[in-house]
Write a structure and sequence with these properties.
The structure is a single chain. The protein is an alpha/beta fold and 253 residues long.
Amino acid sequence: MKYAQIIFSPTGGTKAAAEAVTARWDGPVETVDLCTPPGAPAEASFAPEDLALIAMPSYGGRVPALAAERLGKLQGNGAACVLLCVYGNRAYEDTLVEMADLAEGCGFRVIAGAAALAEHSIVRKIAAGRPDGADREVLGEMSGKILEKFRSGPGAPVQLPGNRPYKKAGGGGMVPHAGKGCVECGLCAAQCPAGAISPANVREVDKARCISCMRCVSVCPKGVRKLNAAVLAGASAMLQKICGGRKECELFL
């Protein structure tokens, strides 16, 4: 048998939360990166005795469409899986039930679900620094419970929060652009999972392809790829009203 973590993590928060879980697993963990640029598809094969963690961010209470598409190309072959939804202290709404449907649709067997917090990918001061030490400790404790269930064999179906049909997916629309100081190194284009930035001219962005994941912002070595200041201020004001208070990690077995 093998352990694996299947991750879509444009800005690193989802990956950090996933690794807080899999770090407690008693063996090597293979990583399947669903956030690669177009043309470099993730590949992996699984067997019924395997255990996989599927970790994705919540975008407006839904699974990012690009992540859903890429997960759908994997073959679970009856492997057990744990779902980890990571969100920026607002709400994850229908993300976990959508993840469950996607995972079962490509042959995985869902044995657990969890929700964890990470720094908001757009308004970074919301849930800043999360997952923090307290989160990692909680996620580590969850990991032990997950392994215990995995080893004990099939149990009752997991009851996950969320609704079917899912809430309507929101549009992206928040498109970062290169500002003054851009040296046109091309790193943003090379690492954009949606292929929305032109490698020939990084100032050109295909708005229809951009998924507002903010990976280009997070990888810019000069820190000059940004959202429009007015757009960012508006998003910050809106989110500050609804993201107050510290939300905690949750486990569903």
